[in-house]
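Suppose you are handed a protein chain with no further information: no name, no annotation, nothing but its sequence. What can you learn? This example shows the usual starting point.
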Amino acid sequence: MHYHGSAMNSSVFVLAQAAPAAQSARTAMWDLFVQSFDIFTVVLIAGSVVGLTVVFLCLLEVREKAIAPTDVADRLRAAANLGDVKGLRDEASRSESMLARTVLAGVQHLGKPDSLRDAAELAAGEESARWFRKIDLLSTIGNLGPLVGLAGTVWGMILAFTSLGDSGGQAGPQDLSLGISKALFHTLLGLCLAIPCLAAYGIYKGVLDRYCTRAIVIASEVLERIQTTAPERAARDAARDTSQVTTPSTSTSTSTQAS
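A reasonable first move is to predict its three-dimensional structure. Written in structure tokens, the prediction is:
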């Protein structure tokens, strides 16, 4: 019983010591941030704001319904299966998705397989590039963040050793370590900026690659189908029109002979 009481007292004592230590560490980090505030810190903070804004916009815009919506794909497939060129064109015109734009670009050249394929590939390439440009800034910020932080660190080291030289080498270890700490703080800020941006870039890149590939596959399927069904439907319509014209003519001729 005495042993458990001693262990509890020791735990309370350790926690009591840890709380002020944690508070002191947070205070020291804030003081270090304030002391190391310069143009490099401003650039890194601005990069963080821009990166956060891009992530938020991508969260709103990078969606399946904006690239390869399922309902649009179903309607386009239905029109292609019926050989309804006008209906397919109308359905594609009503949507701003990558899928619809690719199909619309291809169907304009229906009857010319090579031109259709080239137009669809060009539209798909332009749409893919347009979507990937939305996340390129995350990669740029993620790659430049550590470099800006390193530049700030080098600048801080220069100032620290210049101060040491000005004092005739009389600066104590505490003064020198403080200068180095302020210099290294820029590297920390650069890494804190780069890691989330590159992580978000990798996630969104995978999502965009999946959605864009799906849009291209569906568009190719729809355009291949309409090239087969459109001539068949045109032939059926022509045969029906011919039969409708022939039937009245035959009836008129029979009536004349009867008279």
